[in-house]
Structures are given as C-alpha cells and as structure tokens.
Design goal:
By secondary structure, this protein is an all-alpha fold. It is about 65% helix and about 0% strand.
C-alpha cells in the first residue's frame, strides 16, 4: 500500500474502528484489512 493510504488507514482506524470498517466496505475494500493495520502498529517505533 502507498504510504499516504497507510497513514490514512491507520489514522482512521485509530480514531474509530467502526468508521474504518464502514469506509472499507463502502469503497469496495480498497483499504487494508484491520488485521493488517494491527500488524503495522506492532512495527511502529514509539521511542522518543
């Protein structure tokens, strides 16, 4: 997925998983599955 789409998907999912699922279903699953986003969260380096 392009970085812009990854950022949008992760931000939307962070604020509202239900809204994310609605957008994903409405736009014919153009966004990645929620499990993919959760795997991205595990790869984020949150150190200052």
């Amino acid at each position: 997925f392009p970085p812009e789409l990854q950022n949008f998907a992760a931000s939307l999912h962070f604020y509202s998983p239900k809204a994310y699922e609605y957008v994903r279903e409405t736009f014919m699953k153009i966004l990645p599955h929620q499990s993919t986003i959760r795997s991205w969260y595990t790869n984020v380096d949150g150190s200052p």
